[in-house]
Amino acid sequence: MARTLVAMNEVGLLGRFLPEWEHIVNRWQHVMYHTYTVDVHSIFLVEEVRRLWKGDFEKELPAQTQLVRDEGDLLPLILGCLMHDIGKGLGGDHSPKGAVLARTCLARLGADPELIDTVEFLVQQHLVMSHIAQRRDLSDPRLVLDFAKMVGSRSRLRLLYLLTVVDIRASSKKAWTEWKGSLLQELFEKTSELLETGPTTRARDRAVRATRRDAAPGGRGRAAQRRRGRCCDRGVLRPDSAALFHLAHADTDRAPRARRDGAPPGAFIYARIREMRGDFTEFILYTRDVHGLYSYVTGVLTAHLMNILGANVYTTRDGMALEVYRVARLPATRRCASSRGRSS
To answer: Could you tell me the pTM of the whole model?
Structure first.
C-alpha cells in the first residue's frame, strides 16, 4: 500500500485525486524530530501500520502488534494516518483544520458516516495522547477520567493509541524511545480499564481504602497507621507507584537520617533509587517540605548531568514531601560538552 501511495504522490495523482492533500506535498516541517516532509511522513505512518500488522516489530512492540491484528477494520486507522497532518501549512493549529478537511474529503468520496466521524476524531485528537503521556501526571485519576470522556469508547482509544505510536515512530529514527512507549502504554491501559469498568465515586473510595490497607504489608502498628494516614488520596490511587513503594518501606521513625549543618531539629532526608526497565532510574526523596524544594532538587540533578524525564510530587497532610524523579544519564557526548561549558 505504501509503495502505491508513494508512486501516486510522485507523479501527482494523489494530489489530483485528493485535492486536500496537494498543499502538503514537499512541505517541510520545522519541528523537532521531524526528518521528512509532511506528505512523506504521512505515507510512512501507513507503512508503519502495515509492518506492525505483518509482525516486523513483534519482539519490540508485542502489545501494539497484537492490537493491530485484533482490529477488524484497519481502514479508519489508515485514513487517519494518511490525513493526520493534512491541516499543516494553513496557519494556526493544524489539527482542527485537518479534521475539517478530512471530513470534506471523505464526504466527497461517499464514505460511510461512521467512518467519517472516526477519521475526523483521529485527525482532530492525534496529538493529545502524546501530550498527556509525556507532559502530565498519569497518577492523577481525574486526568485519566477526563481523557476517557474525551475518547468515548475503547475502539476509538485503540485507534488513537496506534496512530500515536506510529506517528512518533515515523517522525525520525530518534523520536521513539522506550520511555515514551512505556508512558503511552500506561495511559492506554489505565484509560482502557476505566472505559471498560466505568468510574464511580464508591469504587474510587474503595480503591483508596484498600491501597492504604495494603501500603505496609504486615504492618498494623501505629507507625504503619501514621504512614497510611499521612498519604494524600492522589498518592495512593496507584498500587504500583513509586510513591506507594516508598510508603511500604520507609518508616520515618527508623529511616536513615542525613542531617545537615543548620537543619532544624527533626529534619531528615530519606532517599531511595530504583533501576527501572526502559533505561531510566527512579530517585525517590522523602523529607520535610520547604519552599523551593522542587527547584533545589532538579537543580542538583541537572548539575550532576542527569536528564530529568519526569517527576511526581506529593505533599502529605503533616508537611512532608514525597518526590519521585525519573532520570537518565546524558549521552557521553553531551556530558563532555556540558563539562567543557562549566569549566569555561
So the answer is: 0.67
